[in-house]
Design brief:
Elements: H1 13-25, H2 28-39, H3 44-59
Helix pairs in contact: 1-2
Length: 66
Amino acid sequence: MDTKKNEYYVLNESAMVFFRYLVKVGSLESAKKLVAEYYGYEGEDLHADLDELLHELVHLGFLQQK
């Protein structure tokens, strides 16, 4: 929730799976691997989509890069 703009953000199922793995393991590459295993798919577009999601979560302030 962005209280300044009074906006709510909702993650779809695949984004939530990624977010949970990322928080659990704390490593981008490990989270990507777990998501790929979860969905049984290893395509490059999956990794690109997860990179884009990560960028958006950081941009919105939901995550911070170390």
